[in-house]
Design goal:
Nitroreductase family protein, about 200 residues, oxidoreductase activity, Nitroreductase, 4 strands, 9 helices, NADH Oxidase, Nitroreductase-like, about 45% helix, oxidoreductase, globular
Length: about 200
């Protein structure tokens, strides 16, 4: 599909065909493409909890204010941000040296820079949410391009999800995405015009 058409036709779909079951291969293909999203130092702060089991979806629905689409979609995905992504700095430095992005003797400096940047807990959280959000948008656009519908969700109790699904403390539930076959027939809500959302140079 033409990219501009993907953007224009993507909708937040609330109702799904419960008879459609997506395969792991289909879901993982979407994830693979979505994971080409950008991230600082290529640390890739995202992780996905993918729930397809019917009983597990019911449990997740309870953590999401009982919204029916959570259990009706083929998969409900909790997009997580990793607070410890910076700990992969060594892997990044090694790959960058192999590809000639940094000289071999520059690996330690790169690692030190990354660790220094992530010393602040707020920075770790901001980057985890930022990375997860970039990947989430890519996931939704990829799904649309492959003929599937999605809906981003913030209506859930993150701590309830953490407890119910044993999510490690370093992973933050940033948002949820329902995924499956469905369509939105209502007219799209209006968008603010460029003149309302652009400021050039300075305020």
């Amino acid at each position: 599909m033409d990219f501009s058409k993907v953007i224009q036709e993507r909708r937040s779909v609330k109702k799904y065909d419960q008879n459609v079951k997506m395969t792991k291969d289909e879901i993982e293909k979407i994830i693979e493409i979505a994971s080409l999203s950008p991230s600082a130092w290529n640390l890739q702060q995202w992780h996905y909890l993918i729930v397809t089991d019917e009983d597990k979806k019911q449990q997740l629905q309870k953590c999401a204010w009982n919204q029916p689409k959570v259990s009706e979609a083929s998969a409900s995905i909790v997009v997580l941000g990793d607070l410890h992504a910076y700990e992969r700095a060594g892997e990044v430095a090694e790959e960058w040296a192999q590809k000639g992005y940094v000289p071999a003797d520059g690996k330690k400096g790169l690692v030190d820079s990354i660790y220094s940047f992530y010393e602040n807990d707020q920075t770790k959280r901001d980057e985890a949410i930022r990375g997860a959000s970039l990947a989430a948008m890519s996931l939704m656009l990829t799904a649309k391009d492959m003929g599937y519908a999605t809906c981003p969700m913030i209506g859930f109790d993150p701590e309830a999800i953490r407890k119910e699904f044993n999510i490690p403390q370093n992973l933050i539930p940033a948002l949820m995405i329902t995924l499956g076959k469905g369509e939105e027939s209502r007219e799209r809500a209006s968008r603010r015009s460029p003149k309302d959302i652009i400021t050039y140079e300075t305020f």
